[in-house]
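In the laboratory, one determines a bound structure by crystallizing the protein with its ligand and collecting diffraction data. In a computational setting the workflow is compressed into a single prediction: the sequence and the ligand go in, and a structural description comes out. We illustrate the idea with MV4.
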Amino acid sequence: MLRKILIANRGEIALRINRAAHELGIETVAIFSEPDRESLHVRFADEAFCVGPGPVARSYLNIPNILSAALISGADAVHPGYGFLAENARFAEICADHGLTFIGPAPDVIAKMGDKATAKALMHDARVPTTPGTGILSDVGAAVHAARKLRYPVMLKATAGGGGKGMRVVREPGELEHAYATAQAEAEANFKDGRLYLEKLIERPRHIEVQVLGDTFGNVVHVGERDCSVQKPSHQKLIEEAPASELAPATRERLHDIALSAARAVRYTSAGTLEFLVAGDDVFFMEMNTRIQVEHPISEVVHDVDLVREQIRIASGEPLSFAQQDLTTRGHAIECRINAEDPSQNFAPAAGTLSDVALPGGFGVRVDSHIYAGLQIPPYYDSLLAKVVAHGATREEAIRRMDSALAETRIGGVHTTADLCRSVMRDERFIRGGVSIDFLEAFAAPAISGS
Ligand code: MV4
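The predicted complex, in structure-token form:
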């Protein structure tokens, strides 16, 4: 087993990793930026190193400083969490070059999945269903030709993208030239890679993803699916649930089988997520995330599996602690992300100092959070304050439990998404289940327009 893990992250996920490591008897090393000096992730770790000032490029993305902290502390492994360096293949490689175990998949798998057109081609070859579309487009002429063949509406996507940047819906031929130019410019500006590809637009799909785990002995299991259709206009998830509701049993089984073949095709190790667009009984591979995800706790509570512990075990060269047939799905779980942002201002991040803080608890409620009264929210990082997870025997029970948990939640000093999440728990379309990715846009429109 590993002896000492450097946690290359901050906030709630750094606490989550710290707990899993300590439970396994593994020592931890925190890193922090200057404004994060008083953070809980620093206080709870066995050692901590300042890696630079607030801006991420100078601290949490500063590879030389993070590596120095790892080597000086004598850590034997690095857990990247999510965001920051979690899907940076070069960082994973540099860790290995310095004798540090990167707690995640192999660098070449991260790189392949990071390039969306490559990932899609790879998955297509592995007989995973993908959205009808093209490879990399040579120019706008190729796009015009391909769009005519696919038939409108279509979607332009940046191969370096993911998460919505450099993406354009094109409903008719007259819009294509402008969409191509702006998507390319956006991708070039954000990723220094303007290459685009084209897909048939899937209308009103749901975003359903499958959690997988692979060990170094070739064992691959799935830990069920999550429905993450309730997303902000920026494509950031707000509410997730496990299992997905209103999914035909045969479609669910097919989704799981597809995810397993996909993970096996790349000899996947560690925790990963395969994202799909689901429309009726049709399933299309979208992308694979080669990290632990924000919403992993809902899969943990319905399957009674500690995904971060499994990541650490796998990186230590241990086999998975269970087989597929040992897993059962028990009840239903929902996660609400409580962010420091103002839903009425198009989810603008709200910096400030937290005054009153009271987080919910009780039977079937789990809260993953790093906040306390008096904490200053720095402007440099993502705005997640707390993940509230409600687990119930049924979806109805989980929704009611979440509603009470959110009613208990008091966070003063900044705007948060708690009230918006509570309104969703009381929305009849959400309660009915199976909403598509367009749900929140329509739901939040009155709040966003201020009426
Ligand atoms: C799509 C799509 C419809 N058709 N692809 C959004 C982020 C990026 N990962 C891919 N995304 C989409 N790809 C085709 N062919 C719709 C989306 C999409 C979306 C997907 C999941 C969750 C929320 C979304 C919001 C808008 C668009």
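The longest helix spans residues 173-191. Keep in mind that any predicted model is a hypothesis to be tested, not a measurement.
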